[in-house]
UniProtKB/TrEMBL annotation:
Residues 1-20 form the signal peptide. This is Lipase domain-containing protein. InterPro entries: AB_hydrolase_fold, Lipase_EstA/Esterase_EstB. GO terms for biological process: lipid catabolic process. It comes from Diploscapter pachys. Keywords: Signal. One of its GO terms (molecular function) is lipase activity. It comes from the Eukaryota.
Length: 236
């Protein structure tokens, strides 16, 4: 399947907080995910389009993945919401740029638990580390992962992220691509969290990796590559 044209109408929604000291308060809460889910449903209903393309950047990746996958979100032990059935059969291309699908190393430090964005339910908690150290740039590296029970079980991290990545979770689109940079100043550590690139979405049909651009630049300075991927359904 190949489509060389773009749709006549592009809808967008900005969920990024530009104020740095407020960004630590953001997480995948029910209010935000339900609102964005309704937005996507409204676009589908208004346009009558059988398929849409979705581009997510940073937290927009993990929000979009849940919006597409549907299902429940547990905000805590007593509060939850249900987004409904999966919409993956309505998405042609999903382009995931610089998302923290396995969490952030920053959120492994004991001090990070005070930040909502690092909470264990709907945050970017990447699990508890047995070894934390700094690299030459001063960034925190999570190198050895505590497991649920000794060393025999898989690592435990954010419940929200584990649900997204679990075996059997639906592929988000007919064509799924992951994009990130090894020089990401937010994710750091060459994008690795406990030995795997956190920006790689399971079931991706391909990955595009930059080497010298920062976190925001992976969105702002890659328009031509984004255009190619969306219009051609393949990597440039």
């Amino acid at each position: 399947m190949e489509n060389t044209t773009l749709p006549d109408v592009i809808f967008s929604m900005l969920v990024h907080l530009a104020v740095a000291n407020l960004s630590t308060k953001r997480h995948h809460d029910c209010e935000t995910t339900l609102r964005l889910r309704k937005f996507v449903e409204a676009v589908l209903d208004y346009t009558k389009a059988p398929l849409v393309d979705i581009i997510g950047h940073s937290m927009g990746v993990t929000l979009a993945r849940k919006i597409i996958q549907g299902g429940k979100i547990n905000e805590n032990e007593r509060t939850y919401c249900d987004l409904g059935e999966a919409l993956n059969n309505r998405v042609l291309v999903f382009l995931a740029i610089s998302g923290a699908n396995y969490g952030l190393c920053f959120c492994s430090s004991p001090a990070s638990i005070k930040y909502p964005t690092c909470n264990h339910y709907t945050g970017f908690w990447s699990g508890d580390a047995t070894v934390m150290k700094k690299n030459s740039a001063g960034n925190t590296i999570c190198t050895i992962h505590n497991t649920a029970n000794g060393t025999t079980q898989r690592p435990v991290y954010s419940e929200y992220l584990m649900e997204l990545n679990k075996k059997g979770a639906p592929k988000e689109a007919a064509f799924l691509f992951s994009v990130w940079s090894l020089d990401d100043d937010l994710i750091s550590n060459d994008d690795y969290v406990y030995g795997k690139p956190t920006s790689h979405v399971p079931h991706s049909d391909g990955s595009l990796v930059y080497t010298t651009i920062g976190h925001m630049a992976t969105k702002d300075e890659t328009a031509s590559d984004q255009f190619w991927i969306i219009s051609k359904q393949k990597l440039p």
